Amino acid sequence: MMEQRTDEMECRVLSIQSHVVRGYVGNKSASFPLQVLGFEVDSINSVQFSNHTGYAHWKGQVLTADELHVLYEGIKLNNVNHYDYVLTGYTRDTSFLEMVVDIVKELKRENPKLVYVCDPVLGDHGSMYVPENLYPVYKNKVVPVADIITPNQFEAELLTGKNISTEKDAVEVMDLLHKMGPDTVVITSSDLPSRLGDRFLVALGSQRSVKPDGTRTTQRIRMEIPKVDAVFVGTGDLFAAMLLAWTHHHPNDLKTACEKTVSVMHHVIQRTISYAYEMAGPGRRPSPAQLELRMVQSKADIEDPAIVVEATVL
């Protein structure tokens, strides 16, 4: 790791996400992988729960918009409000989300090169799992200040008002999302049929960039990702964090960034599955506790993932 330049090592991320005492979701899912890849991660915990809400029981506290503001003010008063990246995920409260937007805008004034990576969590498979009043905030306030977004198909359709039933639709939706603000869009999962059969799902990505001669160009990619027969929590948060890291290391090469991101996901999930099924015993469904991501055990894969998925350039 010694050969990295100092400016690369000093890359600072402000991550505003959930915290759990036990397990991996939100900041717990994002911090370790980013730190392993050389990023300084400053965390604001939007909630502090005992564990994720997929367990039978959970307890904890929620940070209000005012409390978020107080924490940011402290950072600002010490004049250390210089960030290269902001990362956000699941939020349930409109005033909190609006405060995040205000903070992002101010940090962008402080550093115009700041990149805001946003997972616009609204729902999946046709239904919303956040309050509906968050939708206009994401659409009109958050996405316009975002640089990289990672919606699933449902979220991409919702934000653009356009349905995806073909690859062409998906490309049009990604173009519409670009028009709303972000230069990098990755649709993390879709219902499009995979060329490799129904054991795979299709993800798509699109990145707008300006060539040295000033002309605009768009790279679009498609990936066939092996489906997994289990429900994981924290994978979306890991995906957004890894996309942040690998787009940083491979700017203007969305293909490589996505291949590395998806490969990290694959290795972590495979390790988690084998562990969970081993712990559960033959013929038994693993519990939420057994299905917690094997994050620390995957350190080597996070640092240098063997590429298991090749992206197709469209």
TrEMBL record:
Pathway: Cofactor metabolism; pyridoxal 5'-phosphate salvage; pyridoxine 5'-phosphate from pyridoxine: step 1/1; Cofactor metabolism; pyridoxal 5'-phosphate salvage; pyridoxamine 5'-phosphate from pyridoxamine: step 1/1; Cofactor metabolism; pyridoxal 5'-phosphate salvage; pyridoxal 5'-phosphate from pyridoxal: step 1/1. InterPro entries: PM/HMP-P_kinase-1 (IPR013749), PyrdxlKinase (IPR004625), Ribokinase-like (IPR029056). The gene is PDXK. Coiled coil: none annotated. Keywords: Acetylation, ATP-binding, Cytoplasm, Kinase, Magnesium, Metal-binding, Nucleotide-binding, Phosphoprotein, Sodium, Transferase. The keyword Acetylation applies. It catalyses: pyridoxine + ATP = pyridoxine 5'-phosphate + ADP + H(+); pyridoxamine + ATP = pyridoxamine 5'-phosphate + ADP + H(+); pyridoxal + ATP = pyridoxal 5'-phosphate + ADP + H(+). Homodimer. GO terms for biological process: pyridoxal 5'-phosphate salvage. This is Pyridoxal kinase. It comes from Scleropages formosus (Asian bonytongue). Its cofactor is Zn(2+); Mg(2+). It comes from the Eukaryota. One of its GO terms (molecular function) is pyridoxal kinase activity.
